[in-house]
Amino acid sequence: MGNQTPSKWVSRPPLLRARAALGVARVGSDIFAVGGFTDERVWPDTEARHATGDLDWHEVKKIPQARANHATAVVAGLIYAIGGIRSNDKSLDSVEVYDPVSGHWTNGPRLPERRNSASAAGLGGLLYLVGGFIPSGPDSGTTTDSVLVHDPAGNGWTALSPMPTPREKFRLVALEDHLYALGGFSADEQSMSSVERYDPARDQWSAVHDMQESRILACVVATKIGHRPVIVAVAGTEAKDGVPIGSRRTTEIYDPAMDRWSLLDVLLPKPRGSVDGTVEQEGTVVIVGGVTTPHADGSRAFVSDVDALDLEHSGAEFE
């Protein structure tokens, strides 16, 4: 792959509404963007577009409870929007489920406690919810290491072995038979580059190689380059002692066979944090929405940008 000319990020049609801290999911041949916020409010907007062909976004049924910093995952063709915050910054314990076939939202299994900034993934027909922030008062709470699983054939949530590292505003992704928790915000308010892998068959966590850069709320997807399964991490925010330092334009790729991250030369058109994304097709990652790093005066720009990168021609090299 090293002899190929690196590709660039290519602009796709933007979201109808700019927003950050949204959830993005792909079901079949369609991509969905759920919720999110701007400085004005938390939004219930749900938009959809085709993964290929006509890439313009259109509105579908709004999620009943507007939410941001929620966990989003797909199991058995259904999109789960889990927890998050509503317009008064109050955390939610509700779960809502969208069926793209019927076009309707229904209530899912309520969480044991209110939780925001967690991450979720579907694997083996089960829904996993990991980490996040559990409030204990108006201005207090805990960055958690807890792991919950829900079987759609049953009811409620079951606790599993906790992550080694409590984290919030991170990403959880399923690759082959494992889950990976990447980056995020630590309990001592630092952005993290660490990555931990969960084996559901053994209910065990282990550390794998750190990302090359720390990332809060990056776009993280699992896909393939050729026949090689990989994880891709794009953009996200760096922070120190709770203060955002800047958002990133970089992309890095994890090869589980080598336990190695490769930082690509290609850069996003603009730095973005609080983003999400998915794959348009195998080997092409798409990043959706986000927000720029706050300026000196505290202002920031929420973006509707959608950009795609063909990883087959990204310059990534595997030995």
Automatic annotation (TrEMBL):
SMART domains per record: Kelch
Domain of life: Bacteria
The keyword Hydrolase is annotated on this UniProt entry: no
InterPro entries: Gal_Oxase/kelch_b-propeller, Kelch-typ_b-propeller, Kelch_1
Keywords (A to Z) from UniProt: Kelch repeat, Repeat
Name assigned to this protein: Kelch motif protein
